[in-house]
Hints:
By secondary structure, this protein is mostly helical. It has one domain (8-140). Helices cover 86% and strands 0% of the residues. α4 crosses α5. The mean pLDDT is 79.
Amino acid sequence: MSWWSKIFPSTKSAEQLVDAAVKTGDAIWYTDEEKAQAQAQMRDWYIKLLGAMQPFNVAMRALAFIVGGIWVIHLIASTAMYMLAVFICAPDAEVCRAAMAAASIDKQLSSHINDPFYLVMAFYFGAAGVNGAIRTWQEKK
């Protein structure tokens, strides 16, 4: 029995070792063909994603307008109350109901409305942002 057969007890082990070495060597170099294939697969995936999201476009718009409208109403109301407080409250007053109301609206805005608003806006505009990022990346090449 030779020392070679002690290292590789069967030809199957030697074949597996050679296959592993070839795959490792192939994985080290990223050829232009592999890059083109990866880009084509990414484009196909993106087109499938847009197609899959098509039925939800109306729902995304409705959700964006509803949550965006609630956010804008709260923002305008709190800003108006703060501006009103400047005109109706005395400068030396300890308590100003308009300022307290504005602070209450701000608290509601920050604790209950901002997070869903940001999430819905990211959901609604996310696909367009990803598309713009991909286009920008492709134009730089």
